Amino acid sequence: MSSSTFSVWFRASQAFALCCVFACSVLGVSTLSAKQPKSKPAKSGVVGNKEPSSAKARSVKSKTKAGSEESSKKAPKAEPTKGSVANASPHNTATKTKPAKRSGSKQAYTLPAKQKARLERGEIMVWSQNIKGFEIPRVYAKAILPGTAAKNWKLISDCRILKKIVPAVERVEVRKERSKGQTCWLLVDAPWPFSDLTSVLQYTRQAKADGYAMSFFMIKGDYDRNRGHWSLKPYGDKGDRTLLKYWIHSVPHTTAPNSFIKWGTKSNLKTMFKRLIQVCKKAK
User: Fold this and answer.
1) Phi, psi (5° rounding) for residue 183?
2) Burial letters 94-120, b for 16+ CB under 10 A, else e
3) Which of these ranges, 108-112, 117-121, 224-228, has the smallest mean pLDDT?
4) For position 228, which CATH number holds?
């Protein structure tokens, strides 16, 4: 074989070998990376690729300790700043946070300035909120009542007051009395040509740290939905008045137009609050 022929053969063999090595390396890496996680080189005391739990715990602990020592060496100590609670002296009363004193009386509730101005003028605030799945919205009302929250709570927590304050409520009967609520039957006299509406409502009372609350929902009746909530909170510097917030979502079974029901609910809420204010005044 001539030297030139040998040289050509040698270079071709070398190129073929390099191609094989390159192809095998690519296939091997892709296969391993897809099927096998990268394993760390085994250390002393390691069985296979798994480290015993005790050895692993010691290694983690030593690493954590070394890391914390290194960070403590690198990180400079923070200078105490004036007024910081973390660096406050136990004798520095200016930086101490004292726990609030508990008292038997409920704390008076404060309002945003704009709402306060409107309510202080005697306005009854009424607004609505759309509820998903219903064409009739939930309606809210808010007002200030004369008298303490505790005194007004005794009036409002009895469902029989509805006959005095809610327009069109013709009859109210207490079907069941409990320590935390009532079960009441109501008859609403609907205007002609619509049929009267009845419902059995479950009332649940609750005394809270900042006032009183009562929720109700319909057990059965002539409504798709009939539920609501009362909230009474002490109001004023002396807490001698009551901030009342109420909402109701009432969807009756009736042929009346939705616009009529929406208007009627808002109108009735204002009338109900006006009557309730008069009842609270007389109860003083």
Assistant:
1) -115, 120
2) eeeeeeeeeeeebebbebeeeeeebbe
3) 108-112
4) 3.30.530.20
